[in-house]
Amino acid sequence: MTDHGVVVALVCAAMAVVYGLLTTRRLLALSPGNEEMQRISGAVQEGARAYLNRQYLTIAVVGVVLAVALIFIRDGYVALGFVIGGVLSGAAGYIGMNVSVRSNARVAEAARGGVGPALDVAFRGGAITGMLVVGLGLLGVAGYYGLLTTVFDRSQEEAVDALIGLGFGGSLISVFARLGGGIFTKAADVGADLVGKVEAGIPEDDPRNPAVIADNVGDNVGDCAGMAADLFETYAVTIVAVMFLGVLTFAEHTQAALYPLVLGGVAIIASIIGSFFVKSAAGNVERALYQGLIVSGLLAAAAFYPVTHWLMDGITFSSAEGAIDAPSVGELYVCALIGIAVTACLFLITDYYTSTRFNPVKKTAAASQTGHATNIIQGLAQGLQATALPALVLVLGVWASWKIAGGGFQGIYGIGVAVVGQLSLTGLIVALDAFGPITDNAGGIAEMAELPEEVRNVTDPLDAVGNTTKAVTKGYAIGSAVLAAVVLFAAFILELRREGVAPEETVFNLVNPEVLIGLLVGGMMVCLFAALSMEAVGRAGGAVVEEVRRQFREKPGIMEGTDEPDYRTCVDLVTKAAQREMVIPSLIPIVVTFVIGLIDVQALGGLLIGVIVVGFFFAVLMTAGGGAWDNAKKLIEDGAFGGKGSEAHAASVTGDTVGDPFKDTAGPAINPMIKVANIVAILIIPIIV
Asked: Pairing relation of β-strands 324-325 and 316-317?
């Protein structure tokens, strides 16, 4: 069974990689447009490569130190897993980003033929990143597990222990990529908007703006490479955590370890099939994208039952008193379906709070009519309000899956299965997210290359949908991060008990002052992390503003079109700033967790709870509020409340500028931060007990 289960997972993972390679070949065979379009696209490609090369070099330095430390804290197998996780996560983001920056000009060129061809090219470009994320993620987990249990002859418990290192490697890349990419993209965006739109009064993608190329680069390194690393990490970490829980919970270790691997494998096939259902229907781009997601969800739901029956029929809990009955096949299957239902609910809720079609965005846009302050007040209110429904959805999902799986501590495994079900759609979710920067860049290239108006009439609606899909996928990422963290916290408790800590000492009671101290420190970590991230964008964005002003001042011919802006200087400036600013915030979940763990285990447990709870609310507040500000501005630019150039428009630009680091830097980066803290806590258990 070990061989069969691992082989199924590896074959499915390989199919995702092959899909990515074949789609890349097909995509790159398309025309990239005229010489000017290729020149602009080439500048974006060059900037994105330069940024990621420098970012990965910075991460490598930190990674080498941590890999060596893991050899002494754990063992060489954990350290090797850490390296594998980091390399695969980095590869998924790097390859996907490179395809995305080559897709932009091809989408602009395809837009000459209408919405259908442009949609197809943009989605395929995003799907490459999505399939590489799940393909490489499952390939790494299943491949390393198979290697450990067959070649290295390790037991299931030892193999899953080593896989925790793989999850940590993915998490490290994720927190750096999310934060560094977020600082880059929003610093460039803020600088370009404040000087270009507000001061110079020129359009968003006007080639006269020296920060415009940096802005386009940022869309890719933030939303494409950053989200890819984020969901790679969530995907891999969740599968590993559920394997870990299963091996520690059930008597049949092999079946428990294989179950999440095979669920992930069949979900990949469902996603590949679903991708072929993304076709424009009467110009309704959003419907075209979501129908592929719905088909994938239905196929995955159908495939989960036979997999559950094959691997989990008759499985029993492991206990000191002997084997006891575990959840039935039907109960585990319902838990997986709950995960898919949670995904659907989070999509609908996030869409409601961030789409121009609904009241939250309309209210924020209307508030802009009375000034900058009322825009900020309304946007913050919408962000705070947007935390309620997602919290209730997660509460119901956690309670239902826990109850169905039998309640008690064993019910946590049901939550884990629900998270695996939720992550079954990761491939297409990442595709929808990468669709955003591809269409945004395509519109920018059409503007800068002065393509006919009918081309912009195609790229603009695609870009508008891309903004919505980016916001919705962030809501999904936050929800999955929180549920994954719950599973990791349960794994932390089980690992403590396995290391000899008495069960009563793994109950974190508020009567214990150490637990309360940990809760406060955990909440503080989130606030400090968000504050440093926001400040980083402010400083880097301010530097871009000064650079753009300098160029306009020293080269007055830029505005007349007789002088060329210096794009490269802006790209280099933001690259260096992002690399410099991302290090300290990224180390917070590692260093603080480690220090608190050395002081007291009860405080460490409290810290993890504080990080999960406070992190969830901050992440939703920032991403939903930022999305509402962004789309309120777009609603006004489309003609509402006075349109472009009005007082309402100026106020909405201010709101969008505040919301940018909320939704694209600090908010999304909290996701990996939550999981890094939990994984570090598990890894350091041998030296703290």
From this structure: antiparallel
Q: Write the CB contacts of 607 (distance below 8 Å, at least 6 apart in sequence).
A: 518, 519, 521, 522, 525, 592, 593, 596, 677, 681
Of 148, 168, 432, 157, the closest CA to residue 289 belongs to: 432
Backbone angles phi, psi at 250, to 5 degrees: -105, 150
Lookup result for tokens 């998924």:
92
Taking only the tens place, the pLDDT of each residue in 316-345 is: 877 544 445 678 899 999 999 999 999 889
Contact residues for 457 (Cβ-Cβ < 8 A; gap 6+): none
Nearest-angstrom CA–CA distance, 656 and 647: 14
- CA-based torsion, 565, 571, 574, 576: positive or negative: negative
Other residues' Cβ atoms within 10 Å of the Cβ of residue 598: 12
Q: Specify which residues 325 forms β-bridges with.
A: 316
Half-sphere exposure of 419 (CA within 13 A, CB side): 31
In whole angstroms, what is the distance from residue 478 CA to residue 669 CA?
A: 10
Mean pLDDT lowest among 158-172, 174-188, 315-329: 315-329
Alpha helices in 405-512 (DSSP H): 411-422, 426-448, 453-498
What pairs with residue 317 in β-bridges?
A: 250, 324
Task: Name the nearest CA neighbour of 437 among 88, 50, 123, 94.
Answer: 123
Residues 425 and 297: beta-carbon distance below 8 Å:
yes
Query: Treating both helix axes as pointing N-terminal to C-terminal, what angle do 156-192 and 513-554 enclose, rounded to 10 degrees?
Result: 40
The three-state secondary structure class of 646 is coil
Instruction: Measure the CA angle with vertex 526, ends 397 and 381; round to 5°.
Output: 70
Structure confidence by residue, pLDDT tens digits, 243-292: 988 888 888 888 888 999 999 999 999 999 999 998 765 567 888 888 88
Gap between the Cα atoms of 165 and 622, Å rounded:
30
Sign of the dihedral defined by the CA atoms of residues 639, 644, 646, 652, in that order: positive
250 secondary structure, DSSP code? B
Cα gap 255→6, rounded to integer Å = 11
Exposed (0-12), middle (13-18) or buried (19+): which is 500, by Cβ within 10 Å? Answer: exposed
- Cα–Cα dist 10/658, whole Å: 44
The span from the CA of 18 to the CA of 20, in Å, is 5
Question: Is-contact 376 662, C-beta < 8 A?
Answer: no
Beta bridge partners of 284: 281
The answer to whether the CB of 487 falls within 8 A of the CB of 674 is no
Question: What is the value of pTM for the model shown?
Answer: 0.89
- Which among 421, 361, 328, 430 is positioned nearest to 93, based on CA atoms? 430
Three-state DSSP state, 31: coil
In angstroms, the Cα distances linking 257 to 93, 261, 624, 663 are 27, 7, 36, 36
Cα atoms found within 13 Å of the Cα of residue 440, Cβ hemisphere only:
28
